[in-house]
From TrEMBL:
Phylogenetic classification of the source organism: Eukaryota, Metazoa, Ecdysozoa, Arthropoda, Hexapoda
SUPFAM superfamilies per the UniProt record, alphabetical: Chemosensory protein Csp2 (SSF100910)
Domain of life: Eukaryota
Organism: Sipha flava
Gene name as annotated: PebIII_6
Statement: the UniProt record of this protein carries the keyword Signal: yes
Keyword Signal in record: yes
Record's signal peptide: 1-22
Name the UniProt record assigns to this protein: Ejaculatory bulb-specific protein 3
Pfam families: OS-D
InterPro entries found in the cross-reference section: A10/PebIII, OS_D_A10/PebIII_sf
Keyword annotations from UniProtKB, A to Z: Signal
PANTHER family assigned to the protein according to its UniProt record, in alphabetical order: CHEMOSENSORY PROTEIN-RELATED (PTHR11257), EJACULATORY BULB-SPECIFIC PROTEIN 3-RELATED (PTHR11257:SF12)
Length: 130
């Protein structure tokens, strides 16, 4: 009986913590193992993803997923992202700012036309320029 009560207490204490963490990650994890370096070092792939995001080309399944969740991720500071997704987002943003500023500017125009998020993330973006 004591073991049963201990198990119930553990479930009562741990379940809300586990389910809260699971609820925080709301974007799919199935693309977390994509090789970002392969994409970033391939002009054709970058261009295809870019065209997808700005409604100028077809989207892959991954591109559709990114396009679907990107506005929410920007607005919520990636609250629903896993750690791997946050690290990947920073890597991509840094790459675009440093090496493909033409694409970065167009994405900013599309996803932040008023400059609201640019202002919110200004310190972070400044560190990525170096």
């Amino acid at each position: 009986m004591i073991k049963f009560l201990a198990a119930v207490v553990c479930c009562a204490v741990l379940l809300p913590i586990i389910s809260t963490r699971a609820a925080l990650i709301k974007y799919t994890l199935k693309y977390d193992n994509i090789d970002l370096d392969e994409i970033l070092n391939n002009d054709r792939l970058i261009t295809n993803y870019f065209k997808c995001l700005v409604d100028e080309g077809k989207c892959t399944q991954e591109g559709e997923e990114l396009k679907k969740w990107l506005p929410d991720a920007i607005e919520t500071k990636c609250e629903g992202c896993s750690e791997k997704q946050k690290q990947g987002a920073e890597k991509v943003i840094k790459f675009l700012i440093q090496k493909r500023s033409d694409i970065w500017k167009q994405l900013e125009e599309k996803y932040d036309p008023q400059g609201t998020y640019r202002q919110r993330y200004s310190k972070l973006l400044e560190t990525m320029k170096n």
